[in-house]
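Hypothesis: this fold can be encoded by more than one sequence.
Test: take the C-alpha cells below, design a sequence, compare later.
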C-alpha cells in the first residue's frame, strides 16, 4: 500500500507522475480549484477587513471526499498544484480540507513534468507559501469587488454579458506601489507665507510667496524649513510697498467643461528680494 499521497490539479498529470514515482506514491487530482467565492452574492465582507467567504465549489464535494479518504492512511501528503499563486491557493484549500493529524504536508514545486524533475522535487519538498496564497486571495477579492459591482453597469450602458473583472493584477500593483510610497514617506516641516493684498480697485486677493532672492520655493529643492526662517522673511516684508508687477491671462481647457480664463497676479515688494503670486 502506498505510504504517500501526491495531489495534482490535472488527471493527466496524475497518471504521468504516478508512473514516475512508483508504488510508494498514490497520485490523485483535484481537477483545479476545490473552493471559491459564492456565485450568487459578493462573498466579501467589506466592513470586516474584506474577509473572503470561501465555499467548496458546487460539484467538487465528491472530489474533496475522495482526497480525504486517500489521505487518511498516508504518512506524507505532497501538494503538487502549479507553482504559481493560483496553484498555491489550491494547495492551501486542499490542506485545509484534509485531516492532517499525524501527517506531514509538504509542497512540491514542479516546473516541468519529467521523471528527473518529479523525483528531484520529492527529495526536496518545500513549505506552503502563505505570502503567495494571500496574494491570490487579494487578487480574487479585487476581481470580485470590481466584477460584481461594475459589471452590472456595463450591462446597462454597453452590452449584456460584459465583465469588468480580471483587472486585479494591475490594481494590486497600483495599491502596492502607493502603499510603498506611504511607508517610505518622511514628514518634513515647511512653511508657507501668504500676503493679503488690496489695491485701489477691488477685489482684495491673496498672494503666496514663491521666490526668495533668486531661489524659487518648490518644497523640494528649496523651502522655508521652520518658524524662525519664516519670521526672518516676514521681518523683511513688513512695511514694504507692494505693486502688481505682471498680470497673466491664459486659456485652460478642462474637459468636458468649456474653456475658461484664469489670471495670475504677481506682486513684488520694492526691495525685489521676494516674489508672491
Amino acid at each position: 500500500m502506498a505510504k504517500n499521497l501526491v495531489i495534482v490539479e490535472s488527471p493527466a498529470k496524475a497518471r504521468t507522475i504516478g508512473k514516475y514515482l512508483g508504488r510508494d506514491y498514490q497520485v490523485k487530482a483535484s481537477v483545479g480549484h476545490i473552493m471559491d467565492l459564492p456565485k450568487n452574492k459578493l462573498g466579501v465582507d467589506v466592513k470586516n477587513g474584506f474577509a473572503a467567504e470561501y465555499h467548496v465549489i458546487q460539484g467538487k464535494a465528491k472530489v474533496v471526499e475522495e482526497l480525504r479518504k486517500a489521505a487518511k492512511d498516508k504518512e506524507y501528503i505532497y501538494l503538487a498544484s502549479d507553482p504559481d499563486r493560483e496553484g498555491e491557493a489550491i494547495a492551501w484549500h486542499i490542506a485545509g480540507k484534509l485531516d492532517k493529524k499525524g501527517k506531514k504536508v509538504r509542497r512540491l514545486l514542479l516546473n516541468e513534468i519529467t521523471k528527473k524533475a518529479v523525483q528531484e522535487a520529492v527529495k526536496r519538498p518545500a513549505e506552503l507559501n502563505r505570502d503567495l496564497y494571500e496574494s491570490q486571495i487579494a487578487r480574487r477579492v479585487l476581481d470580485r469587488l470590481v466584477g460584481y459591482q461594475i459589471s452590472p453597469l456595463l450591462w446597462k450602458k454597453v452590452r449584456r454579458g460584459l465583465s469588468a473583472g480580471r483587472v486585479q493584477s494591475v490594481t494590486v500593483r497600483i495599491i502596492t506601489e502607493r502603499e510603498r510610497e506611504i511607508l517610505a514617506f518622511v514628514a518634513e516641516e515647511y512653511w508657507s507665507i501668504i500676503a493679503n493684498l488690496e489695491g485701489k480697485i477691488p477685489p482684495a486677493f491673496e498672494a503666496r510667496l514663491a521666490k526668495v532672492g533668486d531661489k524659487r520655493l518648490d518644497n523640494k529643492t528649496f523651502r522655508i524649513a521652520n518658524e524662525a526662517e519664516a519670521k526672518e522673511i516676514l521681518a523683511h516684508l513688513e512695511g514694504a510697498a507692494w505693486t502688481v508687477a505682471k498680470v497673466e491671462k491664459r486659456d485652460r481647457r478642462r474637459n468636458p467643461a468649456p474653456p475658461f480664463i484664469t489670471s495670475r497676479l504677481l506682486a513684488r515688494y520694492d526691495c525685489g528680494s521676494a516674489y508672491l503670486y
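The CA atoms of residues 5 and 77 lie 5 Å apart. Helices lie at 11-21, 61-71, 85-97, 115-123, 130-157, 168-184, 227-237.
Hypothesis status: open.
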